[in-house]
């Protein structure tokens, strides 16, 4: 399971703050789901809904840049949201609940986990349609 280094997370937090993106990576407000915005309304979906969306995004776009983003966000939710107790993974629909548990337990190689997730969600394997070169 890839992990994010503290310098990376700190750099990301500074960049988001400099861009005036209204989010908090850690601190007293993290997980509250509400914060003041001087401009538009802010929608904060429940964590299990967000995790479901990222898992589906990753399965659909694995091997593409947006799929890589999806997996990074799955890792973020696992490392911060879930670790802080703000995720009830039991609210995930099947088969995503089972796949998230398998990912946490690190029972399978990531490639095998990905292929099985795609199969369970009915996502067809694409032929060399990747925009990443890895």
UniProtKB/TrEMBL annotation:
| Domain of life, source organism | Eukaryota
Organism this protein belongs to = Staphylotrichum longicolle
Question: What's the protein here called?
Answer: Uncharacterized protein
């Amino acid at each position: 399971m890839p992990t994010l280094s503290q310098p990376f997370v700190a750099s990301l937090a500074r960049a988001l703050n400099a861009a005036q993106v209204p989010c908090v990576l850690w601190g007293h407000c993290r997980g509250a789901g509400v914060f003041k915005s001087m401009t538009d309304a802010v929608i904060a979906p429940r964590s299990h809904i967000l995790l479901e969306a990222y898992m589906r995004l990753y399965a659909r776009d694995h091997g593409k840049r947006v799929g890589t983003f999806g997996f990074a966000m799955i890792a973020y939710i696992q490392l911060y949201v879930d670790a802080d107790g703000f995720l009830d993974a039991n609210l995930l629909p099947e088969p995503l609940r089972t796949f998230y548990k398998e990912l946490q337990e690190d029972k399978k190689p990531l490639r095998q986990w990905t292929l099985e997730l795609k199969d369970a969600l009915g996502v067809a394997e694409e032929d060399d349609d990747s925009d990443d070169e890895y």
